[in-house]
Amino acid sequence: MTACNPRPPPEHGSARGQPTSLQLAVLVYTYAFIAARGEPPSVHELAERFGWKSPNGAADVLRRLAARGLVALRKRRHRSLRVTEDGRAARARCLRERAVLFGEYNRVSEGAP
Fold this sequence. Notes:
Helix content is 51%, strand content 4%. The chain is mainly alpha-helical. The longest helix is centred in the N-terminal third of the chain and has 17 residues, at 21-37. The radius of gyration is 13 Å and the shape is globular.
């Protein structure tokens, strides 16, 4: 995303209910962030990382990930984001299929420097 996009584009879903590429990018980043820092990113940190002007864009993507069962959220709790088992499996598939795109997150999340 670039700075000129105030929010992520609307998502109409993809075939067979698979996560969109944006959702996968947020999932992979979130997993790497938790592995590196020991706590999940805030919606403000996600918005900054993906170039969204509003944290509402990050919250929207997280709600969609939660609806797919890839992350768990607790309402009105700061940094309550948790990647579920299904989310870990989706992340692993994504990294295998798109290793070139997500190489930096693969190294971080696996504990390599």
